[in-house]
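I am still learning, so would you mind making up any protein sequence you like and the tokens describing how it folds?
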Amino acid sequence: MLEKFFHLSDAHTTVKRELIAALTTFVSLSYILFVNPNILHAAGINKGAAFTVTAIATAVGCFLMGLIANYPIALAPTLGSAAFFAYNVCVGMGISWETALASVLVASILFILITVLKLREKVVDAIPQDLKYAISAGIGLFIAFIGLQNGQIIVDNKSSLVGLGSFNNPAIWITLFGLILTVILMAAKVPGSIFIGMIVTAGFGIAIGQISMPHGFISTPPSIAPTFGQAIFHLKDINTAQLWMVVVTFLLVTFFDTAGTLIGMTQQAGMVNKDGKIPHIGKAFLSDSLAMVEGSILGTAPLGTSVESSAGIAMGGRTGLTAIFVGIFFLIAMIFSPLLAVIPTTVTAPALIIVGVLMAGNLKYINWDKFEIAFPSFLVVVGMPLTYSISDGLALGMIAYPITMIAAKRYKEVSPMMYILFVLFIIFFLITNMG
């Protein structure tokens, strides 16, 4: 039955491989269960409810992606959207979290409309193959940068923005231990090396006293009553130009964020056709649109394509069965939440760094000897980690591409959609980066 529904043989995978891939994605993404509630709490949302909502919303999102699109990609609340929700909208603009959730719901409904009209599909198909490779590589560098930061190898530096972390910090040794171990396992081509590396690293952290043993094994999930349905109840509050601008901003940020991430993940999984098109991407877009709706009704910031899915893809995940397993793990995690405390970001950091290396391999496919291609591709690649945003990095390259192609007298090769995107991305920057 699983073979027939998910076409495992066609994807050259097995149930065991999909399960290991899902475990790897889940362990890499499990931090969202604790980080997302902390961010949403700054907006005034009950932290306990946010924990349970994060788990349920992620599980439903994964089920949607697995069943509708058959992609090995997890859908979860994105930290960028959560931070915008809490710090920009609720704290910065003084908008209540209930009204902010209503804004997310409206943006989600508009998202579905755009998806049904196949506008998102047309946008992705219009992006040149070189830029798609750049997007994948850029996400790889972004993921690696997050891993280096989470592992405290790279830290804030007042004089140079970033710098090397202190080796007096015990946390950095957990990351370095895990990184060296995983690199050795990967080089030796040991199956399941990323997942093995995380488990052994967690054990190492406990052994040196830097990771505490869990105080229990099972706990009752907190109630979602404080947040459930608030988005629907407060739809009537969206009655000012400012709030409609919030809706549009949520729409733009999630549109470009998920488009960029989906391109990167499918490129990594080898799902892109020779003509540069991604099979069934319309179904994937529908999945994340529906996930945004259910997430807002449950009570969380916008869901999107999780970059941590790349860890599972690196372990061989190729079908929606991986996403289904990830969703099941998140439901289980609601009652085993004390155990997740032994997987801090220092344990998952090496996995993200390794995955970044794997995704950076797409750089070799970019036509670097043509400056009109090289420059926008370069902006995408460096823009994502340096702006700490997939959508901003994507925008930089998309704005530069028509300019360089026109200058090179290759404007006829630029599709009409790319010129439309050029204008849209300028508007996107004006809306999201003014003030």
Observations:
- The chain has one domain: 2-213+222-360.
- The mean pLDDT is 87.
